[in-house]
Amino acid sequence: MDTQVKRHLDTFTALFVEELKENLSGIYLHGSLAMGCFNPSRSDIDLLVVVKRKLSRTGIKRIVRDVLVLHEGMTNGLEFSVILDENLALFDYPTPFELHYSDYHREKYRTDDHYVCGGDKDRDLASQITIAYHRGITLYGKPLAELYPPIERRYYLASILHDVEGAPKEIISNPIYVTLNLCRVLLYIREGKLSSKREGGEWGITHLPIQYRDLVQSYLNEYNGAIGHNKVEPLQLSEFAAYMLNTIKKEI
After folding, report:
1. 150 CB-side CA count, 13 A
2. What's the pTM?
3. Which residue from 55, 98, 109, 225 has the fewest beta carbons nearer than 10 Å?
4. What is the pLDDT of residue 229?
């Protein structure tokens, strides 16, 4: 793990330990950094924070304030969710969360003292918790597998299907993420493997119809850090996304 990234993880772990104290149950790293395909130029740092009791509004604002300060010195994106351990012990889908922070919400947190993304439910959490459970790295506390039962397959599947349902439109503006994400969803359906975007792409270039392999290879190369020279037409991208979604639906 890169020294600077390790320093960021240590800093955020210390922040949550200080702010949450005895209410903190565990901190878990998931996503590309946990699965060995982190790209410092484009990947986010993804965390799951588990607490024993609900957070107060004051406590949430303190955490957000401190995170904003620390995030200013980072080049990587940051995303984390704070959830109650009772929602892991008796899993609920979509999953309730106490607090969510990401680059998408960052500006709102900066400019609006009253803004909080929390107290709602999130379909994406089932897939994030599953990855943290099976392939994550424990930064604080005990491993998830020692504390909670695994997420049922039907919830993980519902979560990843929700993530790709808008693929034909989203692939135009975010082709790398959507292309590789579609591959890893189909890989899971066919083989039951929990994979990273890189692993999904590597599988796609050997298992998808030959007419799509160059497209996947080009975005896999870009994801891995190659300078992008992709000239894929929007129509080709939409056609690929439609093919993948139709295949996914047929094979569920």
Report:
1. 10
2. 0.95
3. 225
4. 62
